[in-house]
Amino acid sequence: MGMDENGNVYGKRYREASARESGSLSGVRCAVGLMSGTSVDGIDAAAIEIREGEGGRPQIRLLAFENTPYPADVRAEIFALFEPSAATVDRVGRLNVLLGELYAEAALSAIRQAGLKPEEIAVIGSHGQTIYHAPQPFPSHGYDLRYTVQIGEGAVIAARTGIPCVSDFRVADMAWGGQGAPLVPFTEYLLYGESDRTLLLQNIGGIGNVTVLPAACSPEEVYAFDTGPGNMLIDGVVSRLFPGMSMDIGGAIAKEGRVDAELLGRLQQEPYYAQSLPKSTGRELFGSAYVDQLLAYGEERGLSANDLAATVTRLTAWSIGDGYRRFIRPKHAADAMIVGGGGSYNPTLIGMLKEELEPMGVEVLTQEDIGLSSDAKEAVAFALLADYAIAGRPNSLPGVTGARRAAVLGKISY
Q1: What is the pLDDT of residue 93?
Q2: What are phi and psi of 154, to 5 degrees?
Q3: Is 281 in the same domain as 215?
Q4: H or E segment at 124?
Q5: Which of 23, 263, 369, 377 has the greatest number of CB atoms lying within 10 Å of its CB?
């Protein structure tokens, strides 16, 4: 494969990939992104083509996308690791390698679907599976420690595919005092920014997060934060109360329920919503213990399963609207919100979100409404983040995460 002047074994592959020509444009390379979110639905794999556009902004073409569900027993093992007392080093270590194997298979499958060979892929970017995220400083031995754990070994992915793999993106940002999340706003700025409209990019995965792109903004003007639970509480309630189901497909369960105003009001008092920016959250707050409390309260109130599903669905929509009212509208009145992630396929949730935002003049659209893919969006982002990392280019927005400086995020395995 060769080495560049810095001893970088990747150099020759990268230069060759960048030198390939497609049509009349040069500087084209291909990359694969892998994403597994807090909902633990499976592995998203996107193969993309990247070329340089005007002003140095990349232009992306999606070549292939696949979602590979986790085997049921693997999904159960991952959920077990969300409880720190169960996440022993042997279990974490073994699952870290197992997920690396599964991610490698997902990457190779997406490459085949794109009609490419592994040697035609410049780099793989893998987010990994988050099992713990602690972005708030933890005082210890005179240090303020921030830490996070993503599994899915990048060295295994690189070994099985023969392609350099960038993984473990969050820790470099946290080392510089950042939250380590959200990371996708960097790519959203590159791909979605407009000169005459202020856009909100809302992802609804297990957790909801929003990126604010003011009209004609610079990178320093972009900001983003986790709005709160996305599908996590909905999935938690449905999986407990409807045996054999892991999510509310199409929002059908919530659609038949009634929002309980008293429970909703109680849930809206969660301190996270008022916490100042930057901020991020995860399963540590809105996980199984939170669902336990919801179910206990629902039983006490005599609420039906449909009512509970409707109430937590409304909470997700409300939390997004609350984030807009509290942190965004006072500075940047938005023209439109573009929704991605699994929640964008829930018409009941999207309907509630429109009720929250459209009275304030914000049009609510999905990625599909603008001709893109909600499913593929975050996997595409990690392919692009890896493309920047492997070239040694900063790929973070410190104004989003609260870090003291921009950094090159990701660890590279060859």
Answers
A1: 98
A2: -65, -30
A3: yes
A4: strand 123-140
A5: 377
∠77-167-45 over CA atoms, to 5°?
70
Report how far residue 60's alpha carbon sits from residue 75's, in angstroms, rounded to the nearest whole number.
Answer: 31
Over residues 155-189, the pLDDT tens digits come to 999 999 999 999 999 999 999 999 998 899 999 99
> 41 is in which domain, residue-wise?
11-185+376-413
Assess if residue 36 is contained within a domain: yes
Q: Is the Cα dihedral 390, 391, 392, 397 positive or negative?
A: negative
Question: Taking the model in full, what pTM does it have?
Answer: 0.86
Tell which residue, 368, 346, 383, 343, has the closest CA to residue 64: 383
232-241 vs 305-323: helix crossing angle, rounded to 10: 180
Spell out the alpha helix ranges (H) of 230-287.
232-241, 252-255, 261-267, 283-286
* Pair type for strands 363-366 and 336-340: parallel
67 and 179 housed in the same domain: yes
**Cα 372 from Cα 350, distance rounded (Å):** 17
Residues 158 and 277 in one domain: no
Nearest by Cα to 192 from 64, 58, 62: 58
Q: Tokens in use for 366?
A: 């999905």
Residue range 338-379, pLDDT digits in tens: 999 999 999 999 999 999 999 999 999 999 999 999 989 999
